[in-house]
Design a protein that fits this description.
Blueprint: H1 22-52, H2 57-83, H3 90-108, H4 113-141, H5 148-182
């Protein structure tokens, strides 16, 4: 679909190099709404995985911990959106929640479901890190410096989760193979 150009606001910047136009603010809000939807998707992915995990308590514990962080991250984004006089995008939230459920459902059909979920979780954490780095840049560009510390807190949480999950890969793979070879239920 071709992009349509919108009329530009008269103020595209200031002497400080900030982007102060209404278009810049709307781009920033759109970024926050996208991050909100991404966190809603994460919640669905986590919940669907927790419903099925049987033999990997270490994975379940990590998912539960990050699920609590994710709820706090959503609350932080809600606060920023409220401050900006807007709300999350119901359309984006619903679309990504459905996507999260669909991904979990697709992985559940695989004989190596736990591994597919693990790889997806690691990739998802990298995606979230990029999202929050982008929000930091947007906040700085649009004069919302007071939001940066909030995004940095979330970024640190995502980086920690990413490192933890990545660090679990070898042990998780070995456990999956051992369970598979012993004839026990290995997929979840």
């Amino acid at each position: 679909m071709p992009l349509r150009s919108r009329p530009r606001s008269s103020s595209t910047g200031s002497s400080s190099g900030l982007l102060t136009s209404e278009d810049a603010k709307q781009s920033y809000i759109m970024g926050i709404q996208s991050a909100h939807a991404l966190e809603k998707q994460a919640t669905q992915l986590i919940n669907r995985q927790l419903e099925r995990i049987e033999n990997y308590p270490e994975v379940a514990a990590q998912l539960r911990q990050h699920g609590l962080e994710t709820e706090q991250q959503i609350a932080r984004l809600d606060g920023i959106l409220s401050e900006l006089g807007t709300t999350p995008s119901a359309t984006k939230d619903l679309a990504l929640e459905m996507s999260g459920n669909a991904a979990a459902l697709m992985h559940s059909a695989m004989s190596d479901e736990i591994m597919k979920n693990h790889f997806a979780n690691v990739a998802f954490e990298a995606f979230e890190q990029a999202t929050y780095r982008s929000l930091i840049a947007m906040a700085q560009q649009t004069g919302h410096q007071h939001h940066v510390a909030i995004y940095e807190q979330t970024l640190r949480e995502e980086e920690k989760t990413f490192q933890t999950l990545l660090g679990m890969t070898d042990a998780l793979t070995r456990k999956f193979m051992e369970l598979s070879l012993s004839g026990e239920r290995a997929k979840t």
